[in-house]
Amino acid sequence: MAVSIGEVENISKLAKLKFNEEELKKLQTDLNNILEYIDQLNEVNLDDVEPLENINELVNILRKDEVMQWLTQKEALQNAPDKTGNYFRVPKVIDK
Amino acid sequence: MIQNRNLNEIQKELNSGKLLLVDAVKYYLDKISSQKHLNVFISVFENDALTRAEEIQKKINSGTAGKLAGLVISVKDVITIKDKLHTCGSKILSNYTSVYNATVIERLISEDAIIIGKVNCDEFAMGSSNENSYFGAVLNPVDNSRVPGGSSGGSAVSVAADMCMVSLGSETGGSIRQPASFCGITGLKATYGRISRFGLTAFASSFDSIGIFGKNDYDIAAVLEVISGEDEYDSTSAKEKVPEFTVETGNNIKPGEIIFGYAKEYFEDGLNEEIKNGILKKIEFLKNKGFEVKEISLPHSKYVIQTYYILTSAEASSNLARYDGVRFGFKSENHSNLEEMYVNTRSEGFGAEVKRRIMLGTYVLSSGYYDAYYKKGQKMRRKITEDFENAFKEVDYIISPTTPTTAFKLGEKNDDPLAMYLNDIYTASVNLAAIPAISVPAGNDSNGLPFGIQIMGKKFDEAGLLKVSKLFI
User: Fold this and answer.
1) What letter does residue B97 receive in the DSSP assignment?
2) Nearest CA in chain A to B321
3) Which of B413, B457, B426 is nearest to B275 (CA)?
4) Do B302 and A16 touch (CB under 8 A)?
5) N- to C-terminal Cα distance for chain B?
6) What is the pLDDT of residues B49-67, one digit of tens each?
7) CB of B260 closer than 8 Å to CB of B465
8) Predicted confidence band at B1 (pLDDT cuts at 50, 70, 90)?
């Protein structure tokens, strides 16, 4: 199942990445090579195998729902590229 | 003076007054500054380390020092230290300062270890050569034209080139054992969950684990003893009791107590002949010592890398969605709306390999392909895990080469991601199965390049791995 350039472009939109034409072509080649290799899994019949979803098979690790002092607002905002007052700032998303 | 001494010996010298801690720290700082060409450290904490040395020296003098007093350690730049730069080897975090300590860091500090700096690595721990760092490649100290391995390349070189005693690295698929093998030192990957991941920047959360590089079993045991154990901040951390590793590893393993296995699948095509012969010699050595060594089978070994890349890329694509230029890190100034800000920040901030994995991960999780790839990967992960469960019914430890080749040349595999991925063919299975493993130096090839022998064990048997590793030294 070869991946087309159109699909690579579509995936890049989902991943919020953009590539120039040359990069897209290289990615298409790389992804097709990797996926072709991955397709070797089809040699094995896995129909009756239960997917392994939880590697250490722990169940329901719960804690009390308590308020704890963790990061202060100042610390949480300390690394923000753009902020105003006590908020992160992003470009305007609602037009007038 | 302190070269090639283990922590126990150094502590004796510190306690007797023969050695001053500040001199030990200065020794390592000198090694760091005289070997800058290896490009190992992203941050060096010179003043902090010297100040801590004075403070801890006072505790030593008054007999109140912690278990790790005397230990000088470096930390891979994917583990957070409060108020320090935390880059993950990426442009996107190149200006990010951590606001908290990882649990392992808290535990190291509380036992008086001295953290000397943070070391280079592949971007977000994705890579097998340490060439994928925004801060440039790390060089192999044995041969500067070759890679040190990755992703924890800086950690491996910091220990191999004597810039510290021990280093904390991390593994998602061989990222400690492979560079340990390439640099001729010991690297331990503990059981998934043994060591808290709190403060370890996520790559693939069901695989990621912190581990330890060192030159001897004692130093690794001492650090493991301190950093292991349940953590309320990491719900995947294991409740399993933590043994006194330094005491346990003082005992020697004798023939008759354990059975070794080697998987025939790990000695097939693609394995360098010199490494193959080196490991087979080690097997003979064990037999001559009277140990039982059995051939076993791990039948799904040829599907390890495929499964690994489906699952880790999927998890990475999800984990790396958080880098969007809003809350922390680099932000592109080239945008006229929010969508462009996201896209340009990520496109300018991530390197090529990280983008490739995000793309692959997004693809295998996308509508229509989920069952064909992601779910199939999870099914194969169960089969690979069962291979190990079955093997460990017959044997206690499985030995293998750590890597199919010795360290390769810088740039040699950059154009072929698949060739790069195959470096982890003997190591990634351990991460899929969540078991512990260690790589110990096993010899050198005809170019003088080191290679390691890997020992894989049952879940939570790190003490056994450390004991077994002593047989090969």
Assistant:
1) B
2) A15
3) B426
4) no
5) 22
6) 999 999 999 999 999 999 9
7) no
8) low
Residue B203 touches partner A, C-beta closer than 8 Å: no
Chain B contact set for A8 (CB, 8 A): 359
Q: Please name the helix (run of DSSP H) or strand (run of DSSP E) that holds residue B417, with its range, or none.
A: helix B417-421
Instruction: Please state, in angstroms and rounded to a whole number, the distance separating the CA atoms of residues B119 and B124.
Output: 13
Mean pLDDT to the nearest integer, B160-181: 98
Number of H helices and E strands in chain A, helices first, is: 3, 2
CB contact under 8 Å between B379 and A50, yes or no, is yes
Specify the pLDDT at position B366. 93
CB B151 within 8 Å of CB B128 = yes
pLDDT at residue A51 tops 70 = yes
Query: What per-residue confidence (pLDDT) applies to A58?
Result: 66
Helix axes B21-34, B46-61, angle to 10 degrees: 160
Whether A90 sits inside 8 A of B341 (CB atoms) is yes
Position A1 confidence tier, pLDDT thresholds 50, 70, 90: low
Residue with tokens 């010297």: B50
Residues 6+ apart with CB under 8 A from B177: B171, B187, B189, B402, B427, B430, B437, B438, B439, B452, B454
Domains and CATH numbers, chain B: 1-473 (3.90.1300.10)
Q: Does A2 touch chain B (CB under 8 A)?
A: no
List the Cα angle B448/B454/B458 in 5-degree steps: 170
Q: Are strands B209-214 and B166-171 parallel, antiparallel or unpaired?
A: antiparallel
Average pLDDT over residues B444-461: 98
Q: Which of B343, B322, B321, B326 is nearest to B334 (CA)?
A: B343
Complex ipTM tops 0.90: yes
Which residues of chain B from 398 to 417 reach within 8 Å of chain A, CB to CB?
Answer: 417
A55 vs B347: CB contact, 8 Å cut-off? no
Query: How are beta strands B72-76 and B166-171 bridged, if at all?
Result: parallel
Q: Where are the beta strands (DSSP E) in B183-264?
A: 186-189, 209-214, 259-263
Given a contact cutoff of 8 angstroms between Cβ atoms, the answer to whether B330 and B134 are in contact is no
Rounded distance, CA B193 to CA B198, Å?
Answer: 11
Residue B47: pLDDT above 80?
Answer: yes
Name every chain A residue with its beta carbon within 8 A of the beta carbon of B418. Answer: 33-34, 37
Catalytic residues of B: 76, 151, 175
The alpha-carbon gap from B33 to the nearest alpha carbon of chain A, in Å, equals 30
**What pTM, to 2 d.p., does this model score?**
0.97
Helix (H) or strand (E) holding B82: none
Q: If DSSP codes are grouped into helix, strand and coil, which group holds residue A42?
A: helix
**DSSP single-letter state for residue A55:** T
- Least confident piece of the model among A57-66, B5-14, B296-305: A57-66
Smallest CA–CA distance, residue A60 to chain B, in Å, is 9
Distance separating alpha carbons of residues B140 and B148, to the nearest angstrom = 4
Q: What residues contact residue B340 under an 8 Å CB cut-off, 6+ apart?
A: B334
Tokens 């990010």 identify what position?
Answer: B96
